[in-house]
Structure formats: structure tokens, C-alpha cells
Amino acid sequence: MSVVKINVLTVPAEQREVLEQRFASRAGAVENSDGFEWFELLRPLEGTDTYLVYTRWRSEEDFRAWMEGPMKAAHQGGGEGAPRQKPAASGSTLWSFEVVQQAGPKGAA
Ligand code: HEM
Q1: Where is the ABM domain (predicted)?
Q2: Is 56 in the pocket of ligand 1 (CB under 6 A)?
Q3: Which of 8, 50, 53, 68 to mutate to test the pocket of ligand 1 (most atoms within 8 A of CB)?
Q4: Sorting pLDDT into bands at 50, 70 and 90, what band is 78?
Q5: Residue 81 above 80 pLDDT?
């Protein structure tokens, strides 16, 4: 059973571009992590200041292993070895779910 881990980021309007640029130059390490299934950065359309970082994992254990290792390196920020700047997000909360049902379009893999 896959698990979904969503990091909920509070991002003030003037920090949106900074946040999106940081993700654009993100480490890209998560793609190589065991049990990683999906990532999306979700920008709010309804006038809130809440971005969602959606990730899906094969299991809770795979997510924990990522958190304890590659996650830390992937959050050094800035890309290309730049030093850590002030966080673009003013707050964060981790949401956890398990996938109980799913569907895709007919004919898709
Ligand atoms: C303290 C709270 C957190 C903040 C403020 C934050 C913010 C960020 C930012 C700005 C980036 C872009 C790279 C960088 O500049 O470091 C990033 C990367 C990422 N974050 Fe977070 N993050 C936090 C915790 C988490 C957690 C708990 C998850 C778990 C769902 C997560 C998932 C990811 C993923 C998957 C990436 C891309 C890593 C890669 O490409 O290898 N983050 N995060």
C-alpha cells in the first residue's frame, strides 16, 4: 500500500518566486530514492498562501529512509552548492495518508 506525504508550506506572496526557483533548482535526489513513486509541487489557485509538496512512496519505511538521509542533503537549498538562505516558507506541516483507492484514465499503464 503506497503512502502519500504532503508537506504543506505557507509561502508569503513575495516569496513565491523564490520558492518556485528553489524547487526549479532542487537536488533531484528524490528520484533516485528507493520506494519513491511521485513528486509534485502544487501552486495554489484559490488565493491562499499554501503550497503543497506532494510525494508518494511505496511504504512508510521508504519515506522514513529518505527523511533520515537524502532528504537532508536535498534541503541544503540554493542548488549548485549555494549556502542556505532564509527559508522562502514561513511555516510547514507534514500530512500523511495511505492510498486506499486509485484510478487513472482507461488504457493508461
Ligand atoms: C521544514 C520544512 C520544509 C521546508 C521549508 C521545505 C522546503 C523545501 C524547498 C525550498 C525545497 C527546494 C530545495 C531547497 O531549496 O532546499 C525543497 C525540496 C524538497 N522537499 Fe522540502 N521542505 C521541508 C520539509 C519537507 C518534507 C517533510 C518533505 C516530505 C514530503 C519535503 C519534500 C521535498 C522534496 C521531495 C523536495 C525535492 C528534493 C529533491 O529534488 O531531491 N520537504 N523543500
Answers
A1: 3-94
A2: no
A3: 53
A4: very low
A5: no
